[in-house]
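Hey, I was hoping to borrow your eyes for a little while. I've been staring at a protein lately and its backbone has me curious. You're getting the sequence in one-letter code plus the fold written as tokens. Would you mind checking whether the tokens look sensible for this chain? Here's the protein in full, and shout if anything looks odd to you:
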Amino acid sequence: MSSAELAKGGRQNVFGYVMRLIARIPFLVVGGRLYGAEDLGRFAYATMTVEFAAAIALVGLKRGLALALARQRQPENHVMADAMLLILAASTAIAAVFLLFPALLFPSGLRFEGERFLALLVILIAVLDLLLAGLAFHKRIEIQVMSRSLVEPWVISLAAIGLYFTPLQPAGLLLAYVLALVAASVVAWIPAFRQFGLPQGWRPSLARMTAMARENLPVAGADVIDWSSRRIDLFILGRFASAEIVGVYYVAQQIASLAGRLRTSFDPILAPLLSRALASGAKAEAAGHLAQVGFWVITIQLCVVLMIGVAAEGAMGLFGPEFAVGGLVLLLLLLAELASSQASIAESALIYSRPRLNLGISLLAIAVEIAVAVWLAPLWGGAGAAMGLLAAMLVMAILKQILIVHALESPVPMWRVSILLCALPAFLYGYATRALPEAWHMVATGFGLPALYFFLVWKFAFTPADKLLLARDRKENPA
């Protein structure tokens, strides 16, 4: 049954990933073309800080909640209530610090007093992620797709356009971000309430909350470090470069992260399956889940890297002439996201089976990133910061792959030679199109390259089990 569940959940998340890919691009175009690199850089720093704070406030429950629910030590809505109270306490404390010290969000100072209340989004984001994690445990993946992949990106894009033509234009990007998160939260709250209901008979317990926080501490550390590894480069660059350069880097980072979000979109279906398999001691089954999802993610992500990487300068130029200089940065960040996929998928099981060693590897990787970025960012600007991220992701990918094989006592093959053989003709085709005028080059890589790549993959690389990802439900064999 789990193979069919994995394929169905993966299919829903691939759909959500494509929708997010389509919807996020307009926001970046609007931000770059209408608001400019400086405003975009300011927005990037503030929202990065808020999202980092929310990741801390979640205390690992975005992934750890699945294991807490699977143990069935108390009713599900009691577990949800304990988790909700815990993250409300943590997120409120962090938000209070930002309210008192808004320079943590806006180092250049507030443009108007209302900007300090962006701090309250720490609470909103943490609660939203908790609700989606709870729904994912019951395979309600469509709610995450609707909330995060449809409602949030489209609301932020449309709101940013509308607010630009109003007196609120100086705060347009930030207000659009607020509206998008509120809309995404509404989408999640209704099904979450229907799924779990009110926690009848529940009473707050400091002991239970403390135990939950302690159990999830290794997961929380891994989540925060994983999140930090993808943001610390921007933070370091901000210490050495102007807001305009940070804005260019942010656009490149957002485009590259669209490839990385494909991996994270599989977490809602993968976490419950892994937690159940590992709880029952089925290590080989867990290894099979990881290998299958890893292959799917790398297959699709490799196409995105080829498609965008071959046309990196042109892709950056879409957001404004001043962004075209970020082509090399975009290419390096795409390679970093590809390298990180293997590590992140392995980590999905390591947080349950080898939490402390997993945390140690993550700490080592972020130390490598900081060292390389601090060394190279003053010399090469955005390219130096991107090199720091790439170095960290390579270290993490190699070490976590070795560790997961030992932890599960089974091979976890995510890469296959067949995929590389399919990628080679697609790359040569894309590189050859660079001889065309820029507009035709963009069209040829945007449509022709993925068509060629996936034709080859379907014919020569996908097995019948792989093709379940794109099969209709009625054709799936539940056995």
Remarks:
- Confidence is low (pLDDT under 50) at residues 473-479.
